[in-house]
Amino acid sequence: MEVVEASTEDLIAALDDECRKTLGLSAQDFLELVRHGEEPDDPTAIRLAVLAQAIIGRE
Amino acid sequence: MLPSGEHSDWRRSSWVVSAFDGVVPVPFELEDGSWLFAAQTLGVRESHTDGQLWLTTLSYTYQWQSDRDDGSWIVRWCYQRETPSGATKPASERAHLHVNGVPSAYAQDAKHFPKLHLPAGRIGIEDLAAFLVREHSVPARSENWEDVLEEAHQIFANIQARRT
User: Fold this and answer.
1) Residues of A in contact with B18 (CB under 8 A)
2) What does pTM read for this prediction?
3) Do A29 and B56 touch, CB atoms closer than 8 A?
4) Distance CA B30, CA B18 (A)
């Protein structure tokens, strides 16, 4: 299994890019929603929440 | 696999297993042309019964979809072992599924059907693979796929039996 080597800053930058493109949110805004345990309705947000959880796990 | 924090205390480490585009989890195409988003977050937790450390699934999202676009989702299975604060959820609150459709007999003024949290148990990726092959005729890539899935299923069942 291949391991994705990336810094937390890289993950946040990628999340920010995806969130702004598809959800109209910044990464920080989206991370706040995920921290509060809100389950998104949007299927893209559900996919990006996996990345957000990985970032939160590094805190 | 994407490491989600490396801590000296193993119980604080977790890892995301998925298909990735760079660092972003993405769906992948199946042999029949439909797509599957499958992401699991794994972590180490201490057994309440014997104190041993176990690698376990903290959460998963499996989403079967008709094409690469997330909006084409058909069914989504969700599992979350813990609350955001880290407390273990009761087993009955951990898993559910969503269906992206509305039955014609469903009341129009009720909660939007795709948003319903339909009760479900925890399922393994093996169960999902078997569903896709048996029910949707997704071509299997190996002739002995049933044996492979059954063996993996049995290993999982044996581990679960040891933990209870």
Assistant:
1) 50
2) 0.92
3) no
4) 14
